[in-house]
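agent: user wants the structure for MbtH protein from Streptosporangium pseudovulgare. delegating to structure tool.
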Amino acid sequence: MFDDGEFHVVVNDEEQYSIWPAGRDLPAGWRPVGSAAPKAECLARIDANWTDMRPRSLREDT
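agent: tool returned. relaying tokens verbatim.
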């Protein structure tokens, strides 16, 4: 459904990543990281940068 077009990589305060369709309002608590790009490129950025899936609050407790 949302495979075409451009997306933003977005991140929340817990440093969890996702993608969001460009041109749509972001959900509360999320901010864009970088510029809009095709879905595959955004997913590759996430794969390269999000190496620890735990929320920031759990990483800081260890």
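agent: one observation worth passing along. The chain has one domain: 6-61.
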